[in-house]
Design brief:
Blueprint: H1 10-18, H2 26-36, E1 41-44, H3 51-63, E2 76-79, H4 83-97, E3 106-109, H5 115-121, E4 127-130, H6 132-140, E5 151-154, H7 157-162, H8 166-173, E6 181-186, H9 191-200, E7 205-208, H10 213-217, E8 219-225, H11 228-241, E9 247-250, H12 254-266, E10 271-274, H13 280-292, E11 297-300, E12 315-318, H14 325-332, E13 342-348, H15 353-363, E14 369-371
Parallel strand pairs: 1-6, 1-7, 2-4, 2-5, 3-4, 5-6, 8-13, 8-14, 9-11, 9-12, 10-11, 12-13
Length: 379
C-alpha cells in the first residue's frame, strides 16, 4: 500500500516523498483514512510504530478545510506526557506544515522552562502540543482558550497516567467542547487507560498493532560480565574498537549519566548527558546534535528514552541494567528500527546476573555473556 491510496492531499504526498517516507506503517494505513473522515480512533501501538505521523498528516489535511480560530483559541490539542515528546510531536507538525497551502501554526508548551515566553507565543496558534501540568498553568493565566477545540489527541496515554497526570487530564477534558474528534494512542490498554477511553471516545475505530517480534531479531544482543570499575574502560574500548560514530548509552541515574559523559570527554570522546535535571534548552540541543552526528555518545536515563526517536541508530549500550524487562525492551528498541540492523550491548555486574536472566526469559532470547578479559587490554 502507498500513501497515495490513503486519501491524503497532493501537497502532503509531496512532503512525504521529500522526507523519504515511502510506504506507510500499519497504524498509518488504518488511522489516516479514519481520521480524515473525522472518526474517533483508539490506537494501541508501541513507540516507533509511526503513530505520530498517523495523526499529524490527517489533522493538517482536515485543518485546511475549516475556518481556523483566532485570539488564543486553538483548534487542535495534543496532550503528551513529557517535554521531549512535546518537542518531537511539534517538530513533525511543523515539518509537514511547511507544504500546506494555508498556513498552520503549531507550538509546544511544557514545564521546566519560563512560562512567559510561552504565553506570548500562543497568539495565533492552531495546533497546541502540551504537557498537562503546563497547560493548566497557561489556562489559569488565561493565556489560551480550549472552547474551540475541534480535535483532541492523547498521545502515550499509558505513560501520561503512569506519571500521575490523571487529575490534570480530567480537569482539561472538562473544559473542552463536547462535540469534537478524539484520538487516543497508548502502548498498552490497562485499567486506567481503558477508563479514560470510555470517558473520551465515541464509537472509535480500534487499531491494535502487535509488537513485531522481527524487530528484536534485527538487533544483535551481546553482554559483558564486568564489575563497576571495569565499565568505563570497557565502554571506551568498545566505542573505539567498533568505530562507533553514534551510540546511545543508558544509565539508571542522572548522577551516573553525568559521570559517564564527563569521563568520556576526559578521554577525548564527544559525549553529552541528557536527563531530567538538565534544562530544556540543553536537552533539546544535545538531542539535536546527536541526531545530526555532531555528538558521538549520548548518555541518557530511562525517563527520556521514549523521546529519543532516531531512525537509523546503530548502537545502544546498557551501562547499567534497567529495573524491568519492559524498560530493557524500550531501551534496545531505540536501535534496529525502520528495518535496519542494530547492536545492543549490556554491561552485567556480578549482582545483576540473576536480573539479566529474568530479562532474557521475558524477551525469549539467550544473550551471550562474555568475559571482558577476552577483549580488554590495559588502558
Amino acid at each position: 500500500m502507498s500513501f497515495s491510496s490513503l486519501g491524503l492531499p497532493t501537497y502532503l504526498l509531496k512532503a512525504l516523498a521529500a522526507q523519504n517516507y515511502t510506504e506507510p506503517y500499519p497504524i498509518q494505513e488504518q488511522a489516516i483514512p479514519a481520521i480524515l473522515k473525522k472518526k474517533d480512533v483508539l490506537g494501541i501501538a508501541q513507540t516507533g510504530s509511526g503513530k505520530t505521523a498517523s495523526y499529524v498528516l490527517p489533522i493538517l489535511s482536515n485543518l485546511q478545510d475549516k475556518v481556523l480560530s483566532k485570539n488564543r483559541h486553538v483548534d487542535v490539542l495534543v496532550l503528551v506526557p513529557t517535554r521531549e515528546l512535546a518537542v518531537q510531536v511539534q517538530e513533525v507538525f511543523h515539518s509537514f506544515s511547511l507544504s500546506l497551502p494555508e498556513k498552520i501554526k503549531s507550538f509546544a508548551v511544557y514545564g521546566g522552562v519560563s512560562i512567559n515566553p510561552q504565553m506570548m507565543a500562543l497568539q495565533g496558534v492552531h495546533v497546541l502540543v502540551a504537557t498537562p501540568g503546563r497547560l493548566i498553568e497557561l489556562l489559569e493565566s488565561n493565556a489560551v482558550k480550549l472552547s474551540a477545540i475541534d480535535t483532541l489527541v492523547l498521545d502515550e496515554a499509558d505513560k501520561m497516567l503512569d506519571l500521575g497526570f490523571k487529575e490534570e487530564v480530567n480537569k482539561i477534558l472538562a473544559l473542552l467542547p463536547k462535540k469534537r474528534q478524539n484520538l487516543l494512542f497508548s502502548a498498552t490498554l490497562n485499567a486506567d487507560v481503558n477508563n479514560i477511553t470510555q470517558l473520551v471516545l465515541h464509537d472509535p475505530l480500534v487499531i491494535k498493532i502487535e509488537e513485531e517480534k522481527e524487530n528484536i531479531d534485527l538487533i544483535t544482543q551481546t553482554a559483558y560480565a564486568v564489575d563497576d570499575a571495569g565499565k568505563g574502560p570497557l565502554l571506551r574500548h568498545l566505542i573505539k574498537s567498533k568505530e562507533m560514530k553514534q551510540v546511545l548509552v543508558f544509565t539508571s541515574s542522572t548522577y551516573k549519566a553525568d559521570h559517564v559523559a564527563d569521563k568520556l570527554r576526559k578521554h577525548g570522546l564527544n559525549a553529552q548527558a541528557i536527563h531530567s535535571k538538565k534544562s530544556q534548552g540543553a536537552r533539546t540541543e544535545a538531542l539535536k546534535q546527536f541526531k545530526a552526528g555532531t555528538i558521538t555518545v549520548l548518555v541518557a536515563t530511562d525517563l527520556i528514552s521514549r523521546g529519543i526517536d532516531i531512525k537509523f541508530l546503530p548502537f545502544v549500550i546498557n551501562y547499567e541494567l534497567p529495573r524491568s524487562p519492559k524498560d530493557y525492551i524500550h531501551r534496545i528498541g531505540r536501535t534496529g528500527r525502520a528495518e535496519s540492523p542494530g547492536e545492543a550491548i549490556s554491561f552485567i555486574a556480578p549482582e545483576d546476573e540473576h536480573h539479566f536472566k529474568i530479562i532474557q526469559k521475558k524477551i525469549g532470547k539467550t544473550v551471550p555473556l562474555m568475559d571482558i578479559n577476552s577483549i580488554l587490554g590495559k588502558e
